[in-house]
Design goal:
single chain; alpha/beta; Rossmann fold; seven-stranded parallel sheet; 7 helices; globular
């Protein structure tokens, strides 16, 4: 039996990258998953490839109306919801001086407003689960200063604090829902490739097994494994916590002697 056997999940930003890896591994471990994304063609193709335990719905996470539609779809297709993975995100490279207000608003609409809307929209269904879980994708950018990713860092910081507030709200109101955040460092995804100027190149080959060297990027499966664990009943005592998936980045002193 898989670690999330019988669970129903909704994953945002699931057409590619981390979201697709999350959806894929959740299905491999026994869940049924509604993949959502603003990219309809890629999202539908991904869901079709994953088989009968996957479905797709278009979702602009900054739209309350589209969230209502996505929640109705997951209930109609699968009968409920146990796991919400708020993964959708963008990054606009701009420091505090060059970041425009439009860039700031767009970034936060997706990763700040989007997470708020997702949690609020999904909660009525999650309340009906025996062990519901909300997994919010934050970043090590919520812990460190990254001037070129100013708006991105602001949004991920909001995700970090919203996660804790939602977790305690669910406890105080006796809801069977946990809420946690994942803080990954660099992962080889289309978004990271684009930021690094490699958008037209094939992804780097990153070993799927063994210990990675200090400067290595991770692969999407490194994050997906954490998502599956946090979605499982084995994580029942974990809420309000932040899970660092960073190959030691936050633990490493800047002036370490080699």
């Amino acid at each position: 039996m898989g670690r999330v056997e019988g669970k129903i999940a909704l994953v945002t930003g699931a057409a590619m990258g981390l979201g697709l890896a999350d959806a894929t591994m959740l299905i491999e471990e026994g869940a049924r998953v509604l993949l959502t994304d603003i990219n309809v063609e890629a999202g539908q193709k991904a869901a079709d490839a994953l088989g009968e335990n996957a479905a797709f719905a278009k979702l602009d996470v900054s739209s309350p109306e589209e969230w209502a539609s996505a929640i109705a779809t997951v209930e109609e297709k699968f009968g409920g919801l146990d796991v919400l993975v708020n993964n959708a995100g963008i990054v606009i490279v701009a420091d505090p001086e060059s970041c425009t207000y439009e860039d700031f608003k767009k970034t936060n609409a997706i990763m700040n407003d989007g997470v708020f809307l997702g949690m609020q929209s999904a909660l009525p269904l999650l309340k009906k689960s025996k062990n519901g879980s909300i997994i919010n994708m934050s970043s090590t950018a919520s812990h460190l200063g990254y001037p070129p990713f100013f708006a991105y860092s602001a949004a991920k910081g909001a995700v970090r604090s919203m996660t804790k507030s939602m977790a305690i709200h669910c406890q105080m109101t006796n809801l069977p829902v946990r809420c946690v955040s994942i803080h990954a460092s660099g992962i080889e995804t289309p978004m990271v490739q684009t930021v690094q100027g490699r958008g037209d190149e094939a992804p780097m080959e990153i070993p799927k097994d063994g210990i990675l060297p200090q400067e290595s990027l991770g692969c999407p499966e490194d994050v997906a494994r954490m998502v599956v664990f946090l979605a499982s009943d084995d994580a029942r005592f974990l809420t309000g916590s932040e899970f660092i998936v960073d190959n030691g980045l936050l633990a490493r002193p800047a002036d370490i002697v080699q």
